[in-house]
């Protein structure tokens, strides 16, 4: 009888230690999950803020202001418009004779 009681006592102690270990691990995992959820909420908030900033930077007024200030661009008017025409260069007599001789 004493042997059975000792075996049962050892089984109960081992079971209790196992239960304490499992509870500790469960709390640790729950804490990590809670931190991950907090990080997720923080990242979602930051993402939303960055999306707003991106839309704000891409407005046509902002782009026009940057073009004027940094690129020194200005609105086009007929008074400052320059038209460029392209005319093909005239072949020179010596170059055409050299090409005919090479063929």
Automatic annotation (TrEMBL):
**Which family is this sequence assigned to?**
Belongs to the FtsL family.
Compartments where found = Cell inner membrane; Cell membrane
Top-level taxonomic group: Bacteria
Q: Which HAMAP family match?
A: FtsL (MF_00910)
Q: What does this protein do?
A: Essential cell division protein. May link together the upstream cell division proteins, which are predominantly cytoplasmic, with the downstream cell division proteins, which are predominantly periplasmic.
Which species is this record about? Rhodoferax mekongensis
What InterPro entries does the annotation carry? Cell_div_FtsL
Name assigned to this protein: Cell division protein FtsL
Alphabetically sorted, this entry's keywords are: Cell cycle, Cell division, Cell inner membrane, Cell membrane, Membrane, Transmembrane, Transmembrane helix
What broad class describes the main subcellular location of this protein? membrane
Q: Please report the record's description of how this protein sits within the membrane.
A: Single-pass type II membrane protein
Assembly with partners or alone: Part of a complex composed of FtsB, FtsL and FtsQ.
Q: Which Pfam families match?
A: FtsL (PF04999)
Which biological process annotations from GO are given for this protein?
cell division
